[in-house]
Amino acid sequence: MATLLDRFEEQKMKKTKGKPCTICGEPIVLVPSAAERARKDVTGKPAQYFINLFDQHSECTVKKRSEEAVANMRRYRETGEGMII
Questions:
Q1: Ranges of H-type helices in the chain
Q2: Phi-psi region of 46 (alpha: psi -120 to 50; beta: other; left: phi over 0)
Q3: How far apart are CA 55 and CA 32, in angstroms?
Q4: Above 80 in pLDDT, residue 84?
Q5: I want to staple 47 with a disulfide (CB 3.0 to 4.6 A). Which of 12, 15, 34, 67 is the partner?
Q6: CA-CA distance, 81 to 64, in Å (whole number)?
Q7: What b/e readout covers 16-48, taking b as 16+ CB neighbours within 10 angstroms?
Q8: pLDDT interval class at 79 (50, 70, 90)
Q9: Is the dihedral of CA 15, 51, 65, 68 positive or negative?
Q10: Per residue in 19-63, pLDDT tens?
Q11: Is the pTM here over 0.90, yes or no?
Q12: Is 49 exposed, middle or buried (0-12, 13-18, 19+ CB in 10 A)?
């Protein structure tokens, strides 16, 4: 019997791949798919809207922000320049 995670992975692999991530270049796979999102959407937006809405993986975004924050803190420590938030 397949576990919930196994079924999720199977569904994920069946979904069509969207445009590439602007950070890593790998295709973005929407789960649920853009077509499913468009069917459920009450505003009538087309599937292409949902494809264009997501241009980065969440993991890539978090990693990039973390790296930028660390670089900013190092620059501030070394030069006294930069903004600490």
A1: 4-14, 34-40, 47-53, 58-79
A2: beta
A3: 16
A4: no
A5: 34
A6: 20
A7: eebeebeeeeeebbbeebbeebbeeeeeeeebe
A8: confident
A9: positive
A10: 899 999 999 999 899 999 999 999 999 999 999 999 999 999 999
A11: no
A12: middle
Cα–Cα distances (Å) from 53 to 5, 17, 28, 80, in that order, read: 26, 14, 11, 37
Residue 25 backbone zone (phi > 0: left; psi -120 to 50: alpha; other: beta):
left
Q: What local confidence, expressed as pLDDT, does residue 77 receive? A: 87
Taking the CB of residue 67, how many other CB atoms lie within 10 A of it? Answer: 10
Parallel, antiparallel, or unpaired for β 17-20 and 27-29? antiparallel
- Provide the 8-state DSSP code for 75: H
Q: What is the 3-state secondary structure (H, E, C) of 44-64?
A: CCCHHHHHHHCCCCHHHHHHH
